[in-house]
UniProtKB/TrEMBL annotation:
Pfam families: CTP_transf_3
PANTHER family assigned: 3-DEOXY-MANNO-OCTULOSONATE CYTIDYLYLTRANSFERASE, SPORE COAT POLYSACCHARIDE BIOSYNTHESIS PROTEIN SPSF
Transmembrane segments: none
InterPro entries registered for this protein in UniProt: Cytidylyl_trans, Nucleotide-diphossugar_trans
Protein name: Spore coat polysaccharide biosynthesis protein SpsF
GO cellular component, as recorded: cytosol
Organism (species): Kribbella caucasensis
Length: 243
């Protein structure tokens, strides 16, 4: 079974424009993200848009030795479907590029569970019931499931949010498996990049605490020890589906 990681990225983010191209510790957040994913040993594909604004994303992915698929900005589902077909994947790990500190071992654990069951009807994630910090999220599912969603989904919200159709139209044979964080409930922490306050926290973690080399448990331990770091972005509300 060929499983690949598809990460979506674009420069036209609304809350913090070109956020993945901003830098911390001498690298862009996108470079940090791709470096972390490379540690899984899985093929990585950046699914970006055909917009000229995303040329830098294509260049940075190429420099990292990462494959790129370019498609529609708003129809992200079709972007994923195209990346699946072009790279002949049987299984997909979906992540987003606003997670510069995503833990490769966390992703690998999910992939191991998916492989072990060898079931096209299985959906594995670590955020169905959130215990991980935001910024560690992944979803794993069969390529066949997503290609069927691409063929069937018509609502704009389903085309934009990739797996929304899978959740809302799943049949009785689709099994959901949630893998929790071993360290308890760390869901209050935001290690994701969506606003300037998120950027301030991530930059501090990378430049002052060596976060680029730390795993999820280490990062949570830092956040627990330094409540002033949590205070930097604890007020940020996550965007809702469709916003």
């Amino acid at each position: 079974m060929k499983i690949g990681i598809i990460t979506q990225a674009r420069a036209t983010s609304t809350r913090l424009p070109a956020k993945v191209l901003l830098t911390a510790g001498g690298k862009t957040f996108l470079q940090h993200h791709l470096d972390r994913l490379a540690q899984t040993g899985l093929p990585v594909i950046v699914a970006t848009t055909t917009n000229e604004a995303d040329e830098q994303i294509v260049e940075q992915a190429g420099a990292a030795g990462v494959a790129v698929f370019r498609g529609s900005e708003l129809d992200v589902l079709s972007r994923f479907a195209g990346a699946i077909r072009e790279n002949e994947l049987d299984g997909v790990v979906r992540v987003t590029s606003d997670c510069p500190l995503i833990d490769a071992a966390v992703v690998a654990e999910g992939v191991d569970r998916f492989r072990a069951e060898a079931d096209d009807n299985l959906y594995v994630s670590n955020c169905l019931e959130r215990t991980f910090p935001r910024g560690m999220d992944y979803e794993i599912f069969s390529a066949a499931r997503l290609l069927q969603a691409d063929a069937d989904a018509t609502l704009p919200v389903d085309r934009e949010h990739v797996t929304a159709y899978l959740h809302q139209n799943r049949t009785g044979d689709m099994r959901l498996l949630n893998l929790p964080f071993d360290g308890g409930d760390a869901s209050k922490y935001r290690l994701t990049l969506d606003t300037q306050d998120d950027r301030n926290l991530l930059t501090t973690l990378i430049e002052d605490f060596g976060a680029a080399e730390l795993n999820c448990a280490d990062l949570v331990a830092i956040m627990e020890k330094h409540p002033e770091l949590h205070a930097l972005n604890e007020h940020i509300e996550q965007k809702k589906l469709g916003e």
